Amino acid sequence: RHHSHTYIHCGRGCHTTCSSDKHSHTLGHCCSFSADVDECATNTHSCRPSEQCVNTVGSFICELQVTCPAGFQLRNSVCKDIDECVLQTHNCGMGFVCENTAGSFLCNPKHKCISGFTQDSHGNCIDINECSSLSEPCGSGFNCINTVGSYTCQQKIIMCNPGYHVSPDGAMCVDTDECQMGTHRCGVGQICHNLPGTYRCDCQTGYQYDALRKVCSDVNECWRYPGRLCAQTCENTPGSYHCSCTAGFSLAFDGKNCEDVNECDKNPCGQECANIYSSYQCYCRQGYYLKEDGHTCEDIDECSQSIGNLCTFKCVNVAGSYQCACPANGYVMSANGRTCKDIDECTTAAHNCSYGQTCYNLQGGFRCLSFACPHNYKKVSDIRCERISCPSNSLDCQNSPVRITYYQLSFQTNIIIPAQIFRIGPSPAYSGDHIVIGIIKGNEEGYFSTRKLNSFTGAVYLQRQVREPKDFLIDVEMKLLRQGTFTSFLARIYVFITSSAV
């Protein structure tokens, strides 16, 4: 591993370097001398503490120090077994044969003895005392007796008192369990309790011993402890008792107290259920009433049972309530949900009147009216026509109305009859004026009449009940006598009777 060299300068002309060893050399013309350095002795080696330094020529080696146990020796750094039998280093006697083992040896007798004997150091067979050499050769209930080549076990003789018997191993007396063996004399209904050397007969729980009849009789706990065992009802049972509860209660987990039963958990009611102490009560939601069976809810027909008018037009019963409805056309439901509000088709442009017609809104509808002026009249406003001047020789023209005015009136069928619906008179009126009024057209069925209120005022009346919606167009003529001259005026009145059910 390590090498040491000595460099010697030998003389002129000699330039040879000689390796250090323990011999002298003559190399060429160079005379050299080398001496080995013992690194182990000079402690210049680098071996570890667990290694041994061994010097070599020109170097050293580090060998691992190995300590072998007894019976082994180190060979090539390995512990190998020493064969004492081969090396004759054993101490076996003449009657024994050496047998090598790992790290030792055995001395085996040359001749084996039969069972029950062993060989002494001289090779003789001697009896083995099993009673002393073996660990418990006999059971605890037996005594060991040594014999030649063997041994015997002799049972111990044990006498036990009444209520005891010898244990299976014969070593001691143990208690006899008369209860388990069924050798007791306890009566029917009694419980056998084993005791050391004897037993005791007790009555079962819930029974007491009757000394006269010598039997166990049931204890009525409900009579013995009235009101203390159960919260409600106590029922005696053989050997015990049972607590029960009345209707509407269930027995609690402790078996004594009673808890209210929530009958509503089983949904006994048609709609709503309210649990009450020991029972329950069914009730219905708004719009329903509880039937006589106390469980079923029936819908209330508010429309048929209502004293007042719930809806202005139509009441529709629904489950649990009611709804108000309006006619299919011309109305919309108000925000209060009860009254119907007329749709003004004229304002909302929902009508179908032509350009030359005027839209007039009604309850639940509309009318397209034409205010055209007849021949020889001119239109001075949307609803008024005035006569053009007449020829002097045309009597018909001079007798025709000087002015035609259109009016629109709307009433419901439930209007109280007779009803004054229109007034007519000159404006302005002068002293001495007199008028004559009459319906000259449109009153063929006699629904209307006229009446003079004073000398210059007249009125139109609805004198007959109109039971269904109906449209009328009546011409009311007023003749004014002023300063000896008659002048005619015509009021063309549209009267619309609409339904009163809305």
List the topology elements.
Layout (H helix, E strand, L loop, with lengths): L23 E4 L2 E4 L5 H4 L8 E6 L2 E6 L7 E4 L2 E4 L2 H4 L8 E6 L2 E6 L7 E3 L5 E3 L2 H4 L8 E6 L2 E6 L8 E3 L6 E3 L2 H4 L8 E6 L2 E6 L3 E4 L4 E4 L2 H4 L8 E5 L2 E5 L4 E3 L6 E3 L11 E5 L2 E5 L4 E3 L6 E3 L2 H4 L8 E5 L2 E5 L5 E3 L6 E3 L2 H4 L9 E5 L2 E5 L7 E5 L2 E4 L7 H5 L3 E10 L6 E6 L9 E8 L6 E7 L2 E6 L7 E13 L2 E14 L4
Parallel strand pairs: 35-41
Antiparallel strand pairs: 1-2, 3-4, 5-6, 7-8, 9-10, 11-12, 13-14, 15-16, 17-18, 19-20, 21-22, 23-24, 25-26, 27-28, 29-30, 31-32, 33-34, 34-35, 36-39, 37-40, 38-39, 40-41
Quickly give the structural class: mainly beta
Number of helices: 8
In which range does the helix fraction lie?
A: under 10%
Main sheet characteristics: 6 strands, mixed
The low-confidence parts are 1-32
Tally of extended strands?
41
- Radius of gyration over C-alpha positions, nearest whole angstrom: 72 Å
Q: Beta fraction of the residues? A: 35-45%
Strand order of the largest sheet: 33-34-35-41-40-37
Q: Determine the mean pLDDT.
A: 86
Oligomer: single chain
What is the global morphology?
elongated
Could you give the distance between the termini? 130 Å
Task: Give a short overview.
This protein has 502 residues and is mainly β. It has 8 helices and 41 strands.
Would you give an account of this structure?
There is one protein chain. A six-stranded mixed beta sheet has the order 33-34-35-41-40-37, with no helix packed on it. Strands 36-39-38 form a three-stranded antiparallel beta sheet, with no helix packed on it. Strand 1 (24-27) and strand 2 form a beta hairpin. 7% of the residues lie in helices and 43% in strands. It is mostly beta strands and 502 residues long. It contains eight helices and 41 strands.
